[in-house]
């Protein structure tokens, strides 16, 4: 009988895990809010299921001989020391595609909300105004160019949805060739051209040292004054101070953010800004995505216990945060 400890995150559904794991396994939700708590829990468990807020540094793997697998309940694994896990013989898994439909829809929703000034109209009506000119100027979406920073699965699905509006689509991603992008109706461009050409930019990149603060002061100065920035990737890809400065200076028009540097934010310079829409890292969510997430976690954990390579295996030699 194996023991599985999970973090106290509502996206981790204990009943679904138990049902999908089968057998006589013990699945228990545990406070994993600090490294010390993670180490303590990991000493007594065969598998850890963690969300993005749970730190899993080398100290966890140094102290826990029993641990077989750390399953990330989501996509990014920047909170897990992948190299230390590999050295300790611990398998790390994630579920990269469980919310492709949801995140792509959320990205489009943020863009449309800002593009059509939905919140601005709503605020004006609350203030007693009823005037369509409050949203001026609004352009025709079919005549806009939308650029993608990174062009993985979620960006591709977002591109499919925006193609239905008739948008021109471009993308910058050094790891995807031009022919592959063209197959999705997207033109490959250098990052600098993306900034200068796109009417709006949607960020889908993973967090690496290469992508951290890709959108800094210089990047915003190169973007169009009417541009909307959407970030459904990782918060630190955008330099938040530089973004606030760009918004205040009129260097870009607006930002839709599902991810921030600090979550939840404390005294954020962006929350409450008239030209910013913030959602609470919720782009992944639908009831359907959570069922898929937990079923995939259970399948991966079961495969590790059986000595098989899980579908969600994170290769330590190619892990992308």
Describe this structure in words.
Helix content is 34%, strand content 15%. It is of the alpha/beta class. It folds into two domains: 3-98 and 286-305, Rossmann fold, CATH 3.40.50; 100-278, Rossmann fold. The strands form two sheets. Strands 8-7-6-9-10-11-12 form a seven-stranded parallel sheet, with helices on both faces. The chain has a five-stranded parallel sheet with strand order 2-1-3-4-5. Strand 6, helix 7 and strand 7 form a beta-alpha-beta unit. It is elongated, with a radius of gyration of 21 Å. The relative contact order is 0.14.
Supply database-style keywords.
321 residues; EC 1.1.1.-; Probable D-2-hydroxyacid dehydrogenase; Rossmann fold; five-stranded parallel β-sheet; NAD binding; D-isomer_DH_NAD-bd; 12 helices; oxidoreductase activity, acting on the CH-OH group of donors, NAD or NADP as acceptor; elongated
Gross CATH architecture of the largest domain = 3-Layer(aba) Sandwich
Q: What percentage of residues falls in helices of 4 or more residues?
A: 25-40%
Low-confidence stretches: none
* Alpha-carbon distance between the two ends: 32 Å
For the CA atoms, what is the radius of gyration? 21 Å
CATH topology of the largest domain: Rossmann fold
- Can you identify the CATH class of the largest domain? Alpha Beta
Give the count of structural domains: 2
Strand order of the largest sheet: 8-7-6-9-10-11-12
Describe, in short, the structure shown:
The chain is of the alpha/beta class and 321 residues long. Helices cover 34% and strands 15% of the residues. The strands form 2 sheets. A 7-stranded parallel beta sheet has the order 8-7-6-9-10-11-12, sandwiched between helices. Strands 2-1-3-4-5 form a 5-stranded parallel beta sheet.
